[in-house]
């Protein structure tokens, strides 16, 4: 398999039956999930990662899950999905985004520790 990086994937809202339950959970509604796919317009496209973003209230969101399949890790796809999730939340009015995950993944983009999870506080322009 050739190496796949950020330039080789596109993020989409999944079609029914395309949600990677092992990455985002079996109960994830389609509207909460975005998937990263390779060769999105070809017959051999495959899902390589995904995230689930949930709106908690008008200004608070939670990244409930974010994952990349092991064969595609280390190429920046997870970090790219994290940035995408933050952008979607912000475009919907988020001022606070909560997430769980490794500190080395979340803290470099501004998440700070908070009671067993991490929080990113967005400031208005």
Structure report:
The structure is a single chain. With 125 residues, the chain is an alpha+beta fold. The protein has three helices and seven strands, in the order βαβββαβαββ. The chain has a seven-stranded mixed beta sheet, covered by helices on one side. A hairpin with a 2-residue loop joins β3 (46-57) and β4. The longest helix is centred in the last third of the chain and has 15 residues, at 77-91. The chain starts with 8 loop residues before the first strand and ends with a strand.
Key phrases:
125 residues, alpha+beta
Q: Got a strand count?
A: 7
Mean pLDDT: 92
What string, H for helix and E for strand, traces the elements in order? EHEEEHEHEE
Overall 3D form:
globular
Radius of gyration: 14 Å
Estimate what percentage of residues fall within beta strands.
25-35%
Cα end-to-end separation: 43 Å
Question: Residue share in helices?
Answer: 10-25%
In DSSP terms, counting alpha (H) and pi (I) runs of 4 or more, how many helices?
3
């Amino acid at each position: 398999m050739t190496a796949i990086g950020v330039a080789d994937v596109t993020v989409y809202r999944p079609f029914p039956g395309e949600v990677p339950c092992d990455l985002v959970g079996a109960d994830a509604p389609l509207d909460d999930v975005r998937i990263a796919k390779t060769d999105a317009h070809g017959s051999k496209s495959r899902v390589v990662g995904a995230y689930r973003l949930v709106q908690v209230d008008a200004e608070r969101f939670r990244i409930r899950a974010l994952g990349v399949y092991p064969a595609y890790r280390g190429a920046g796809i997870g970090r790219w999905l994290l940035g995408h999730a933050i952008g979607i939340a912000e475009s919907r009015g988020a001022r606070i985004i909560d997430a769980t995950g490794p500190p080395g993944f979340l803290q470099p983009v501004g998440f700070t520790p908070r009671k067993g999870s991490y929080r990113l506080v967005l400031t208005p322009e």
